[in-house]
Write a structure and sequence with these properties.
Two copies of one chain form a homodimer. By secondary structure, chain A is of the alpha/beta class. Chain A has a single domain, classed as UDP-N-acetylmuramoyl-L-alanine:D-glutamate ligase (3-Layer(aba) Sandwich). Helix content of chain A is 48%, strand content 12%. Chain A has eleven helices and nine strands. In chain A, strands 3-2-1-4-5-6-7-8-9 form a nine-stranded mixed beta sheet, sandwiched between helices. In chain A, β4, α5 and β5 form a beta-alpha-beta unit. In chain A, α2 packs parallel to α9, α9 runs antiparallel to α10 and α10 crosses α11. Chains A and B meet through α2 and α3 of A and α2, α3, β3 and α11 of B.
Chain lengths: 322, 322
């Protein structure tokens, strides 16, 4: 089945998906049932991105949000918020000697893996950096996540990693790639060995998702276009014209929560479409609504933190707690 | 051409320049198009100044705002806000041995230079400190910025650096110096070998800008007086009588954003005057408006953070998003 949403009332369609997968809240539920998310990212250079992703997941309604980052990044990410569980575990090359690498790699991977089965979704990449040793460790963590059937939203430097080692996610239907304009261009070149063709964009994104083996692609842009190789759809709810850094991190955290919820619905027979695609549609729709609301108040001075503040109200507007 | 603005309706003139260079926002634009700013500053002793400068740029509407600071300063500046990208790169003498200096200098410069071409403007100096080794590295970074035609707003300890090595910026028309009262006095003594003459201030600032080789001078004071050696103008919009530290850092970040926007207008043929001067006028006008608004609410207790909070509303009052 293929459907192209241009021509559809995409806003109401996206919103109805969001509504259908957002769980009811009930005092009989216990901690963890609304989702446990982990962000793999944060290094000496970047600390904002993993924070934005992890706190967004929590503010949308996940019960627990973890960050696995380097030892240098951890105190800073912890200082942004006491709400996150921040693990100072990853290592960058400059901090370790060559002869220690095997030992440290085993330790790093062991530390993350003991948590793995508890997570409903990983976000891999926000502020991860490009240190080779760190990326090698993360690629092993991703392979383990895959063995455990944990979905992964891959963004930022995580995309850099998988573009150089496509086998990590090839044929893994629980992987979502969220490229921006330039990352999408590189993906098309690497995988399809051609250039982006805007005239043929629906077919091209579908071909890309199929070529990687039915992963889901969420192409960020004026409209967010989503394909799992079988279907293509676009979310073009009006967001914000501000392009401040960090908005992609909010999106990755948002998609992680919604796809966890969507998988839960699918497991209960309450959802017929691919839950990964549903999660992408809902995640994109909510972030756009929140960005529009933030921009209404903050105008040109809107920064990513302002959008995060609006996630809760935007979700409640669409989907009030009964 | 020379024009002195005393006598002109300078508020409406400054505001009209601000309005003419501020870009329209559009959902078709992508991240980076509204400006990428970098602040070089922040050491063990000073962390507030580079934060104020960088966050001001973001709140006025830049898409990305970086800080290049020492390793000691970075975790603190990061902790002020996850919105900034903070690079722990610079080194101070007390942290390194003499025999390491060449190696470390090469590394520091390499780390900054790989980013250089991405920036629309640098701010050099907020909280930079006066460590000789650090300043040597920064002077090499400034030479590289010049080779790359990246504009530079030079304030605080950056002014101390260039006053001792005028050749770094001499004859570089994309440099702005933003001296306060004392720094201006020292500049006049160093460059013109005379004393400040308030009776002849317009001619004197023009002579100063010319003598350094058509850099732009923004002399901060009761009125901000701006000259590129060809024109002289003053911005005397009523600001705030509070003189709390940090306001100069807000100004340097503000000028950096507006001159980036003005250069974009000039490149498109939409601006006839020197875009560097336009950027100074607009940056000064906005900070004064924001300071007045902050003072209206906070009175004697106004601090620099209160002014930063008012940047967005002040800009939207002048230049509402269409």
């Amino acid at each position: 089945m293929q459907f192209i949403m241009s021509g559809r009332p995409s806003e109401s369609y996206a919103v109805s998906i969001l509504r259908s997968i957002t769980p009811n809240l009930s005092i009989t539920k216990h901690k963890g049932q609304a989702g446990k998310i982990a962000v793999i990212g944060g290094c000496r250079e970047y600390t904002g991105a993993p924070y934005f992703s992890a706190i967004s997941a929590l503010k949308i309604g996940a019960d627990l949000s973890h960050v696995f980052c380097t030892k240098d990044a951890a105190p800073i990410i912890k200082s942004y918020s006491p709400e996150l569980i921040v693990h100072p575990i990853l290592e960058e090359s400059f901090n370790i000697r060559d002869e220690e690498k095997d030992l440290i790699s085993t330790k790093v991977i062991g530390e993350v893996e003991k948590w793995m089965e508890r997570f409903d979704c990983l976000v891999v990449g926000p502020g991860l950096g490009r240190d080779r040793f760190l990326l090698e460790c993360v690629s092993i963590i991703m392979k383990h996540a895959r063995e455990c059937d944990v979905p992964m939203v891959i963004d930022g430097d995580g995309l850099f990693l998988v573009m150089n080692s496509l086998e990590i996610i090839a044929g893994y239907p629980l992987a979502v790639l969220t490229p921006n304009r330039n990352e999408y261009k590189r993906l098309i070149r690497t995988v399809l060995e051609t250039e982006v063709d805007e005239q043929d964009s629906a077919r091209q994104i579908q071909a890309l998702a199929t070529a990687i083996g039915n992963v889901t692609i969420l192409r960020k842009g004026e409209s967010d276009v989503i394909s799992d190789g079988k279907t293509v759809c676009a979310v073009n709810i009006y967001g914000s014209p501000r392009r401040c850094g960090g908005q992609g991190d909010v999106l990755s955290g948002s998609v992680a929560v919604f796809l966890s919820w969507a998988r839960h619905c699918a497991a209960n027979g309450e959802l017929t479409m691919n839950p990964i695609v549903s999660g992408c549609i809902a995640g994109s729709a909510l972030v756009r609504k929140a960005a529009a609301l933030a921009f209404e108040h903050k105008r040109r001075s809107t920064v990513t933190g302002d959008i995060i503040i609006c996630l809760g109200k935007s979700l409640d507007d669409i989907c009030p707690v009964r």
